[in-house]
Design brief:
Strand content: 5-15%
Shape: elongated
Oligomer: single chain
Strand order of the largest sheet: 1-5-4
Length: 174
């Protein structure tokens, strides 16, 4: 099985409009530029995005809905939070019974293999990476819910404005 194809099967692909919403959010909220590349890879695997050296990279060719939010979380986590804050947040996830199946020996081994992480990374480092991925996915889900709520509010406001415009047009004879 190809881990990338498995990853994509669990994702809805982002159209250009969604990508632009996420890109705008990154620029406005994080104040950083986005580097977009076709066929973005890490360790020989195609990836949807990643953060490295204070830069955010996104795959311009294929991107899941929310990838910009997910990678934005990694940026904040790694470059804005201090070491103590990061450790405390990771420990909250690692020690949460809800996620215990993510940290079994088998899960760690599978995660390492799927991501082509080499043996120089300890199991403890892999556990931290898994916990950070859980957090990034949670933030992505939160941001997408907020985006949906905001678009619903705009839709309702737009409907009211359209109705008022129709009434106004009716009264002035357009």
């Amino acid at each position: 099985k190809n881990p990338f194809l498995e990853l994509l099967s669990n994702q809805q692909l982002a159209d250009k409009a969604q990508q632009e919403i996420e890109n705008r959010w990154i620029r406005e909220n994080l104040g950083i530029d986005i580097n977009e590349y076709e066929g973005l890879t890490i360790n020989g695997n195609i990836v949807l995005g990643y953060v490295k050296d204070r830069m955010l990279y996104l795959n311009s060719q294929i991107r899941g809905v929310g990838t910009g939010y997910h990678e934005g979380f990694h940026y904040v986590f790694n470059y804005i939070f201090d070491r103590t804050t990061r450790r405390n947040i990771l420990d909250e996830i690692i020690n949460n019974k809800k996620y215990k199946d993510k940290f079994t020996k088998e899960s760690i081994k599978k995660f390492r293999k799927d991501r082509n992480y080499n043996a120089s990374l300890s199991n403890e480092q892999i556990v931290d990476i898994i916990a950070e991925e859980i957090l990034a996915d949670q933030f992505k889900d939160f941001a997408l819910r907020k985006q949906k709520e905001t678009s619903k509010e705009k839709t309702l406001i737009q409907k009211v404005l359209d109705f008022l415009k129709k009434l106004l047009d009716m009264f002035i004879g357009k």
